[in-house]
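During the reporting period the student researcher (J.K.) took over the structure-prediction task from the postdoctoral fellow and processed the backlog of single-chain submissions. One of the processed entries is reproduced below for the supervisory committee.
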Amino acid sequence: MKKKMVRTRISSVAMALLWYGTIVANELPEQAIVDLQTVVPGDDGNRTAVAAVARFKNASVADLLPVLRAMKDATPVGRNYLAMVANSLYRKGGDAIETQLEEFLNNPSHDGEARYMVLQWLTAKDIGARNTRLMLMTEDPSLELRFAAIDLVMKEAQELSDPDQKMAKLNELFDSARQPAQVIALAKALNDLGRPVDMNKHFGFVTSWNLIGPFDNMNEAHFDTVYDVERDLLEKTSDTSLAYDGKHDKVRWLQHTTDNQEGVVNVAELFNKEKGAIVYAYQKLDFDENQNAELRLGTINANKAWWNGELITANKVYHSAMEIDQYVGQINVKPGANHLVLKLCQNEQTQNWAQDWKFQIRVCDSNGTAVTPKSIP
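J.K. obtained the following C-alpha cells:
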C-alpha cells in the first residue's frame, strides 16, 4: 500500500546540531550514504541519520558527487539529509570540481533537486548567467529546474506588449508546467487574455463517475466495513444497474460528470449533505498500453482507493486540508479496462469547516504529466 509521500524539512538549527554533533564512528562515508538514503521518519530514523551525518565530519569535497548521486534513490527524509551534507561538502572547496559539477548538472538522469542545487552553486556569483541557463530549461525533467525556468519566463511573458505573443508564450508554458499552483496561475493568465484552457485534460483528472450511497458511517465506525457494493467492486462484478441496502433504504448508482476545472466532485452536494455516511465512486478507464503511473488523490475526508482491486492508499483522516496530489500511490496501467474505486467517508462534525465532502483524482506519470485513457467504457 502506498500513501502520500511527505517531504520532511529539517530546520537550520537542527541541521547545525546534527552536523556539529559529538557522535563519531569509524564507518566510511559510503556506508553513511547508504544509511542516509534509506532513513525514514521517527526516532529510530533520526538516530540513524545523526550517526550517519557525523561520519562526514572529516569528509572532503571528493565525497560530494557520490552524495549528490545518492539523492536520486533516497527516501524523502533521506534526500533532505543528503542535501544538507552536500551543501556542507561544497563549502569545503566545490570550486575545485566545477567541471564534474557541470557534467552532473547537464545529465538529466540525476536527481532534480540535486541538479538544482548544483545550478545554484555554479551561478551563485552571476544571477544573470543563472537566468540565461534557466530560460532553456522549461522542458527539463527536473521539476525543480522546470518550475524555476517557467516562473522566470512567465514573468517575462507577462511584460510583452503584443497580446498574441503573450498568449502564445503563456500557452507554451502552460503545456510545460507540472507544479499544480503554477499550472493554475498560467490557466488564469490565459483565461484573462480570453483563451480558456482545459485544466482537467492537462492534469489528467477523472471527471466522469458512477457514485452510490449513502452507506452508514455513524461514529466513524465503518471505514473498514466491506459493504456488498465494495466487495462487488473489488471483485469487478459490480453492475451499475443494481441497487444495494444503504444507510436509510435502497440506494442506486448515480452518474455524474463534474465541470469543475480542478476535477473536484462535490459529494456533499450530490448526496444531500448527508452526515455519518460513506459514498463509493467507481469508473473504468480504458488505456492503449501498459505503463507504470501514479494515482494522485485529493480529498478532505477519510478515504480508500483501489486500482484493479489493489488497495493503493487508505487514510482515516477526517477534514484535513485538501490539495491536488495530496495522496500519491504507484499503479500499473494495463491495456484495456482498468478499474478505479474510491471509498469516501464523512463523519458527523457540525463545524462549518467540517461540512465539505469532496474529492479529485488523477492518473499521471511521476513528473505529473497526465496519463490519459483512450476512453471510458
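The committee noted the following: The chain has a mean pLDDT of 90.
J.K. will present the remaining backlog at the next meeting.
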